Amino acid sequence: MKNTLLLLLLMLFPAGMQGIEVLEYEPLDPQNPVLFRGDHIVYKGEQIELGPRAFFIDGRFPDEVMEKYSYVFNSVDKAVAELTDGQEGDPMVLYLAPYVYWIDDPDDPAIRTSRAGRPPFGLEIYCNWLTFYGLSDDPRNVVLASNWGQTHGALGNFTMFYLEGEGTAVENVTLGNYCSIDLEYPLLPELNRKKRADAIVQAQLAICKGDKITARNAHFLSRLNTCPLVGRKRTFFSKLLF
């Protein structure tokens, strides 16, 4: 109830107001608190201005809050629709508050199918120098999720992401395909979800096209053909969990 009242208060503030103090905003990860101030966020003492290359995503926001602010979203797919190419020294950054972000609707009954000889993808992203940045030191607190697999909701080796662009990076996030794995999310247990199937099937994470792909402090989860940012010659991995 407290968070519901908070979000109703947020809706009263017009976009672009300066000096807004949303002191009641409570991130799910108390160890890494995030302050949301409408036109910027504060994380680890740093003020991050939101703009065309800096989006803030929190899955707890209702659509009414998202509509008040140009660079605030409540899902990854909505943010992806507004992406702008970044540059090596000025990347396009998705700042992700702790939550479970389903890349496609896990309850959609439609069967995912291959197209033009390619695997069925949950989300295709075309953007240069794009960074997924989780606002938590623990990558398990920021989850990018799908739950489709070969013969279980998909015909073909379902893959959560197709990422085309130079300089794609993921940091402080989990990429998880929960077709054959239970999703357990201790920060908000109501987001837990049982696996789609007991069978261990091809349920992939990310295929990339581009150079200088990077993963730092990231967690990759699946049971078969995990594919953690595969497909490129130069991919750098640092501090990973599998």
Write the layout of secondary structure elements.
Layout lengths: L1 H11 L21 E3 L3 E4 L2 E4 L4 E4 L5 H6 L3 E2 L2 H5 L11 E5 L2 E4 L9 E2 L7 E6 L3 E5 L7 E5 L2 E2 L2 E3 L2 E7 L4 E3 L2 E4 L25 E7 L3 E9 L13 E7 L1
Parallel strand pairs: 4-5, 4-6, 6-10, 7-11, 8-13, 9-14, 10-15, 11-16, 12-13, 14-17, 15-18, 16-18, 18-19
Antiparallel strand pairs: 1-2, 2-3
Task: Describe, in short, the structure shown.
This protein is mainly beta and 242 residues long. The chain has helices spanning 2-12, 63-68, 76-80; strands at residues 34-36, 40-43, 46-49, 54-57, 72-73, 92-96, 99-102, 112-113, 121-126, 130-134, 142-146, 149-150, 153-155, 158-164, 169-171, 174-177, 203-209, 213-221, 235-241.
Task: Give an overview in words.
There is one protein chain. This protein is mainly beta and 242 residues long. Helices cover 9% and strands 36% of the residues. It has helices at 2-12, 63-68, 76-80; strands spanning 34-36, 40-43, 46-49, 54-57, 72-73, 92-96, 99-102, 112-113, 121-126, 130-134, 142-146, 149-150, 153-155, 158-164, 169-171, 174-177, 203-209, 213-221, 235-241. Strands 4, 5, 6, 7, 10, 11, 15, 16, 18 and 19 form a ten-stranded parallel β-sheet that branches. The protein has a three-stranded antiparallel β-sheet with strand order 1-2-3, with no helix packed on it. A three-stranded parallel β-sheet has the order 8-13-12, with no helix packed on it. It is globular and about 45 Å long.
Low-confidence stretches: 1-23
Mean pLDDT: 89
Secondary structure tally, helices: 3
C-alpha geometry: globular
Q: Class by helix and strand content?
A: mainly beta
Through-space gap between termini: 36 Å
Helix content: under 10%
Task: Tell me what portion of residues adopts beta-strand conformation.
Answer: 35-45%
Order of helices and strands: HEEEEHEHEEEEEEEEEEEEEE
Largest sheet data: 10 strands, parallel
**Computed Rg:** 18 Å
Strand elements, count: 19
